Amino acid sequence: MQITNCHTHIFTNKIVPDNFLIWPLQMLANIFTQDSSANFLLASTRKFKDVHYLLYKYITFAKTGSKASQEEVFNHLQKFYPEGTKFVVLSMDMEFMKAGSVKMKFEEQLNELADLKKKYKDIIHPFVFAHPERSGITDLVKKYIEVHNFSGIKLYPPLGYFPFDDRLNGVYEFVEKNNIPLISHCTRGGVFYKGKITN
C-alpha cells in the first residue's frame, strides 16, 4: 500500500519571523530548544493539560526547526513513516506577516526544496507558496513548477491576504490552464497575520 502524507512542512527556524511567538512562549522556546531541562518543565506541567500541550507543541516546534537544514528535518520526518512513503512538502512565506524579519529569504527556502526534489525524486513533492505581496509571484510560481518540478501551489490567507486578491489572478490562470494542484489553509488553527487589518 502506498502512503502519501499530503500536508507536511520541513522548514527551519530560519524562515520563521523574529516575533512569531508571543514573548513568553518565545522565551521558553529559546531557553529549552537545546536544554534537557525542557523535559523537567514538561513533566511538571502534565496535570495542567492545556498548558502542557501548548508547551510541548512549541518546544517541539522549536527543537525540530533548530535543525541545520530542511533536509535534516525531512530525514527526521521520514523516521516516523514506512519506507517508500511520499511527502507533499508545503513551503511557507512568512516575510509579509508583520512578525519581524527572517534569517532565510523565501527563494533560498525554495532553492533548498528544489535540491531535495532532485535528490529524492518521487519521494518528495514540493509546493510553492503564493503570497500576493511578493513581487512577480506568478513568474516565481511558474519557475518552480516548470523548471524545478514542484508539484503544486500553497495558499495561506490567514498570513494577511484574501484568496480573491487580484494579484493572484495570474497564478489562478496558470493553475487552471495547466491542471496544477492548489492547496489552501482553511482551518482556525495555525499562524496568523500580526499586522493591523485595514479592510
- CATH superfamily caption of the domain at 4-20 and 70-184: Metal-dependent hydrolases
* Uncertain segments: none
How many DSSP-defined strands?
5
- What is the H-and-E element order? EHHHHEHEHEHE
Please state the average pLDDT score: 88
How many angstroms separate the termini? 48 Å
Outline the biggest β-sheet.
5 strands, parallel
What would the CATH topology of the domain at 4-20 and 70-184 be?
Answer: TIM Barrel
Report on this model:
This protein has a domain at 4-20 and 70-184: TIM Barrel, CATH 3.20.20. 40% of the residues lie in helices and 12% in strands. It contains 7 helices and 5 strands, in the order βααααβαβαβαβ. A 5-stranded parallel sheet has the order 1-2-3-4-5. α1 crosses α3 (49-65) and α2 (37-44) packs antiparallel against α3. It is globular and about 55 Å long. The chain starts with a strand and ends in a 15-residue tail after the last strand.
SSE blueprint:
Layout: E1 4-8, H1 23-32, H2 37-44, H3 49-65, H4 70-78, E2 86-90, H5 106-120, E3 124-129, H6 137-147, E4 152-155, H7 169-178, E5 182-184
Parallel strand pairs: 1-2, 2-3, 3-4, 4-5
Helix pairs in contact: 1-3, 2-3, 6-7
